[in-house]
Amino acid sequence: MSKDVLEMEDAELDVVEAEFATIRQSSIRAVEGGHVELQQVAALSIDGDRVEVTQGAAALMRGATLTMNQSVSMLATGTTSNLNFSLVPASVSVENTVVSRSAVGAMVANEIHAENSTSILMIGRTVNGNVTTLVDWRSALAIGAVAGGVFGLFSLFRRR
């Protein structure tokens, strides 16, 4: 389905391509467009220049400007990402990521601004705000040392 402007509600769609797409309470296999607004939508793949998802779920979200509110995504990539009350196991941003009361597994961005959020691993040039991170540089060093020791021990036993 391809259109310039698309507005759908309560539908099961396969592939949607539109310059401006507004979809509510639906399930979609793939969405591609310029400005994509989704509310209460489950999708496999979302791709657009400006993507706004509210109470949605997707396996892959990709957009120049990505905004997630109360949503879940397995992988979120974009130039600029805003995550509010969301869950993302992996987030990659070229410029900056703003995280507010969200949980992110691994977060990579040039600048990270976090407010009352949690993360397992954060990689960024600048990190501002209140964030709880499970792995910092000291614990990563300790994990690497333990993994190296275990690998070395197993390689000794394997030779015999």
Question: Which helices and strands, and how do they pair?
Answer:
Blueprint (H helix, E strand, L loop, with lengths): L1 E8 L2 E43 L2 E13 L2 E13 L2 E14 L2 E33 L1 H23 L1
Parallel strand pairs: 1-2, 2-3, 3-4, 4-5, 5-6
Key terms:
single chain, 160 residues, mainly beta, six-stranded parallel β-sheet, 1 helix, 6 strands
Order of helices and strands: EEEEEEH
> How many structural domains are formed by the residues?
1
The assigned structural class equals mainly beta
Largest sheet report: 6 strands, parallel
Q: Largest sheet, order of strands side by side?
A: 1-2-3-4-5-6
What does this protein structure show overall?
With 160 residues, this protein is mostly beta strands. The mean pLDDT is 90. It has one domain. The termini are far apart. Strands 1-2-3-4-5-6 form a 6-stranded parallel beta sheet. The chain is elongated and about 65 Å long. It has 1 helix and 6 strands. The chain has one helix at 137-159; strands at 2-9, 12-54, 57-69, 72-84, 87-100, 103-135.
In short:
With 160 residues, this protein is mostly beta strands. It has one helix and six strands; from the N terminus they run E-E-E-E-E-E-H.
